[in-house]
Amino acid sequence: ASPVFFSSILIDAVNAFTSRYPHVKINASESDEGHILGMVHHQAFDLGFLSPTDASLARDTHHDLTWVKLFTDEVVAAVSSTSALASRQFLTYQDLHKERVSTFLTNPSMPKANSNFYAISNNVATHIALVSSGQAICVFPRFLSRIFSMAAKNISILPFAPTLDITFYMIMSTNHKCTAAETAFIHFLGDFLLEQFQFETVFHSRP
pLDDT tens-digit profile of 160-200? Predict the structure, then answer.
């Protein structure tokens, strides 16, 4: 799974599932987009979870994979409450380019980034520390908002105008036949996403 999905959603879902079904073993790991696509293509991974930089291109390039939309979330930004931007109702893309450093925790389809944008780390705590100290703005899916808000009181979460969405997918080889345990976990994950994050577009289709 992609690092953000792995650390913020998948681990908790796997732990909840295996607590309910202790006889089922699930091996989960985090990786980057290219590695996930390659490993699922070669069926080294049964399932993959990611938010591709360009979903249309990824689907066209990897037509041997089945793509299942999990959910779509809004992309937001965290700024220090001491920043002049904190009093705003929303941010624009131009605001990011004016800042000294903007970091991101995923791959939203944003306008071409300039040198102000960095993928400094997949560690959420690193981004929280940078934002809290006023050194950076961080861009991420809204489901991470509560982690930022709980970790530091001097952080404001702002939406973008126009709004920006990001979609997460589950992928598998078109030749892969899900086991009963995999099917059970997929359905469990759908319910988990609804219960924990109230996503409205969970599993448009299921294998």
Answer: 999 888 889 999 999 999 999 999 999 999 989 988 888 75
Burial level of 63, CB count in 10 A (0-12/13-18/19+)? exposed
What one-letter code names the amino acid at 21? Y
**Contact present, 77 and 139 (Cβ < 8 Å):** yes
- The pLDDT tens digits for 5-52 are 998 899 999 999 999 999 999 999 999 888 999 999 999 999 999 988
Q: Are 31 and 1 in contact (CB under 8 A)?
A: yes
Helix 11-20 and helix 180-197: axis angle, to 10°? Answer: 120
Instruction: Supply 124's token pair.
Output: 């959420």
Decide if 137 contacts 103 (C-beta within 8 A). Answer: yes
- Measure the N-to-C terminal CA separation of the chain; round to a whole number of Å: 18
Angstrom distance (rounded) from CA 172 to CA 138: 31
Residues 6+ apart with CB under 8 A from 117: 96, 102, 103, 104
Strand partners, 102: 117, 137
Indicate if the alpha-carbon torsion angle 155, 11, 108, 113 is positive or negative: positive
CA–CA dist 45, 27 (Å, integer) = 10
Q: What is the spatial distance between Cα 22 and Cα 6, in angstroms, rounded to a whole number?
A: 20
Torsion, Cα of 40, 45, 49, 51 (10° steps): -40
Q: How far apart are CA 34 and CA 143, in angstroms?
A: 24
